[in-house]
Design goal:
The complex is a heterodimer of chains A (about 220) and B (about 100).
Chain A (H helix, E strand, L loop, with lengths): L2 H28 L4 H11 L2 H12 L4 H26 L3 H9 L3 H9 L5 H25 L11 H13 L6 H17 L7 H6 L4 H6 L2
Helix pairs in contact in A: 1-2, 1-3, 1-7, 1-8, 2-7, 3-4, 4-6, 6-7
Chain B lengths: L1 H21 L2 H5 L1 H24 E2 L2 E2 L3 H14 L4 H22 L2
Antiparallel strand pairs in B: 1-2
Helix pairs in contact in B: 4-5
Classes of the chains: A mainly alpha (about 220), B mainly alpha (about 100).
Chain lengths: ~220, ~100
């Protein structure tokens, strides 16, 4: 893994997230948000799952409080990514405040997967690529809502595959495999019984045996 | 009210991110916190895969997205680049849906 490979991967992740962003832009407007509101979420909240959770709840007629609670619960995993990134990148001052905004699934996965001396390159290049693509795609999706058929293009399936592509290189041993399988099982069992957004949070409990057991 | 939800979510999400960056170093240096932080993305990403592929509201469904995941999984197991995995999954799901429409006629 060298710097060129990292920049290429970052660009590829940006493009893939862009496809997801088209879906978010369309979902936001379909849920009843204006184009500026939809774009503001991508610019300012900048964390896809939380944004989807908010517009999903609002679009389904849920309350503002329920929508925000779901979004913030989902966003709490970024706190955990940030703990890991702070340790890896050791930033201070304004750079840390800027890096905070870029703390999401994709940047954390790229920084953690990269060789440690390239973790910073992986983080910042993925942040820039994803931020530009996510926001441009949100605007396009919001403007084009109803024109592009995201399902017919299979773009909804691309989202799950993108998370799998981020996950696969991290499964480097038995403990990692057990945690990943545990997370998948917990989320699957929780889907029918909990509100949108909660199954992913519950999946976090899959790390408990590995952390408490110390193996 | 929608603007309140949008901006409140934005502020809250940024606060959650910044909190992780601002925790005192001794919290970060605890062995269990390090292990938890290293393993959590694995658990959450695999949870996200399941929710995105098999979730439909509160129902668990197996549809064209699952076919896409299988195709993406084969590519991932062969260490294909990220974009190949994603495009293959989308194309597979799109083909399955197009075929379903075709035989449904």
């Amino acid at each position: 893994m060298n710097r060129g490979r990292i920049f290429r991967d970052a660009a590829a992740i940006g493009v893939a997230v862009g496809a997801y962003g088209l879906g978010f832009g369309a979902a936001g407007v379909t849920a009843g948000l204006s184009v500026p509101q939809t774009c503001a979420l991508s610019l300012l909240a900048f964390t896809g799952a939380s944004q989807f959770a908010l517009v999903g709840v609002l679009g389904a007629g849920g309350s503002v409080a329920a929508g925000m609670a779901g979004a913030l619960l989902l966003g709490s995993r970024n706190t955990l990514y940030a703990v890991r990134l702070a340790e890896l990148l050791r930033l201070r001052g304004p750079r840390r405040q800027l890096a905070a905004q870029g703390t999401i699934d994709e940047t954390a996965a790229m920084a953690v997967t990269a060789p440690s001396e390239l973790a910073g390159d992986a983080f910042w290049s993925t942040f820039v690529a994803v931020y530009l693509c996510w926001n441009a795609a949100t605007l396009l999706g919001a403007l084009g809502a109803g024109i592009v058929d995201t399902r017919a293009l299979g773009l909804d399936a691309a989202v799950g595959a993108a998370f799998l592509a981020l996950l696969a290189p991290q499964i480097t041993g038995r403990t990692a495999a057990r945690v990943a399988i545990g997370g998948a099982l917990i989320a699957g069992v929780a889907i029918p019984f909990t509100p949108a957004g909660v199954p992913v949070l519950l999946a976090a409990f899959a790390v408990v045996p590995a952390v408490v057991g110390g193996r | 009210m929608t603007w309140f939800a949008v901006l409140g979510t934005a502020v809250g999400c940024y606060g959650l991110k910044l909190a992780g960056w601002s925790l005192p170093a001794r919290v970060l240096e605890a062995e269990r916190v390090r292990r938890a932080a290293a393993l959590l993305p694995l658990a959450l990403l695999s949870g996200l895969v399941v929710v995105q592929v098999f979730g439909d509201g509160r129902a668990l469904v197996v549809d064209a997205r699952a076919a896409g995941l299988v195709a993406g999984g084969v590519a991932a197991a062969r260490r294909a680049p990220f974009i190949v995995i994603v495009v293959l999954a989308a194309a597979t799901a799109a083909l399955v849906r197009a075929f379903a429409v075709y035989i449904g006629r």
